[in-house]
Amino acid sequence: MSDYTIMVGDCLELLRRMPDSSVDSVVTDPPYGLSFMGKKWDYDVPATEVWVECLRVLKPGGHLLAFAGTRTQHRMAVRIEDAGFEIRDMIAWVYGSGFPKSHNLGGSHQGWGTALKPALEPITVARKPFPGTVAANVVEHGTGALNIDSCRVTTGDDTARISNGAIKGGNFGAGGSAPGPIAGGHSGGRWPANLIHDGSPEVLTAFPDAPGQLAAASISDTQRAGQNVYGNMKRGRGAEASASSENAGVVGFHMRPGARRLDSGSAARFFYCAKTSRKDRNEGLVSSNDPAVAKDATMRDCETAEWSTRNGNSHPTVKPTELMAYLLRLVTPPGGVALDPFMGSGSTGKAAMREGFQFIGCEIDEQYAAIARARIDHEINRQQELQAESDQLDLFGTA
Predict the structure, then answer these.
(1) pTM given for the model
(2) Rounded CA gap, 36 and 43, in Å?
(3) What is the CA radius of gyration of the chain?
(4) pLDDT tens digits, residue range 247-303?
(5) Is the CB of residue 351 less than 8 Å from the CB of residue 273?
(6) Residue whose C-alpha is closest to residue 343's, from 92, 24, 6
(7) How many Cβ atoms from other residues are within 10 Å of residue 367's Cβ?
């Protein structure tokens, strides 16, 4: 059974007490430096010194995933890079429930404002450098690679590709770089992308079905009439040297023109996770069934609501457990140790218990640490109950 450690205090000082190369991953939702709800802890993104300590305690090849705000992502990423990390990618966590905190003008400037509707949070993907090859590092430390198969996006569609009438499946069909041995793609689903969404109507509308995935334009000299997400294609590639053969560098991609995915092309091809529910926030806590704010509450209502008395989890920025579980699974080896230096109310720890990882969390506020302990303990008890039920089924068999 997984276990956890929660340390209360300034994370920089707490991290300095930890031994070198002692954790497998760092997955965290740190302050964004936006002065959110007037919180003092959110006046700046974490200093480079904090990321230096994260680098030190990570095993070689260990990954860091750090959420950020769109206005301060550049500062977050630069400080992580300055600490010695290698920036590998950025995952976009896209949602439809953001509320624009805009100053709307009146008079002759009616209809003008000062802010866009927030709809995504970037997640910096970084890795601790290591000598040698990825394969050798994984063998020695268990870190350095992403757990692709554990994070594939399940689908009812065929993930194979068709090229000149031939079906190419296996890893190639699911997003890899070489043909696989069997037709039909990968049974585990699609290759995980650097986009995650909450399934809201606003997000789904932004990813309509795209029949053909623009592929027919690759082998036609005529202007494309429809089925294009970003407008009509001007012309095809029928006259180019690689129009009917393996690409020799003219076009710049490594498959035959016309090769395409046999899928719907909708947002279903990306990992889906709903925004945090009240149940998810409050499991293990004493809380009221009444919402802290009304359905049509303003931003000011949210800032002044009596969260501590009407809602068991008073932390203002709770991430969904399922989202944190997915991210942990992506970068943490089985049974590995995950660290969250900005634990908050413990969603990363709760997710770690669900996934069977060890967890270390740092939190400066004892009130939030207490909430985290209750949420994590509740998840441990839940996993124990599920295991007991499974053991009983194995003992007596299913009906």
Answers:
(1) 0.75
(2) 8
(3) 24
(4) 444 444 344 443 333 344 577 778 877 777 777 777 767 666 666 666 665 545 655
(5) no
(6) 6
(7) 12
CA distance 265 to 256: 20
User: What's the CA gap between 257 and 251, in Å, rounded?
Assistant: 9
pLDDT in tens, 53-89: 999 999 999 999 999 999 899 999 999 999 999 999 9
Q: How far apart are CA 353 and CA 321, in angstroms?
A: 10
Q: What is the DSSP letter of 162?
A: E
Could you tell me the residue ranges of all domains in the chain?
A: 4-100+116-150+272-396, 211-263
Tens of pLDDT, residue by residue over 310-348, are 557 666 678 889 999 999 999 999 999 999 999 988 999
356 HSE (CA, 13 A, CB side): 6
Angle (deg, nearest 10), helices 73-82 and 48-57? 50
**Rounded to 5 degrees, what angle do the CA atoms 275, 281, 283 make?**
135
CATH of 4-100+116-150+272-396 among 3.40.50.150, 3.40.190.10, 3.40.50.12780, 3.40.50.720: 3.40.50.150
Q: What is the pLDDT of residues 93-108, one digit of tens each?
A: 998 877 777 888 999 9
Q: Which positions ≥6 away from 207 have C-beta within 8 Å?
A: 197, 265, 266, 267, 270
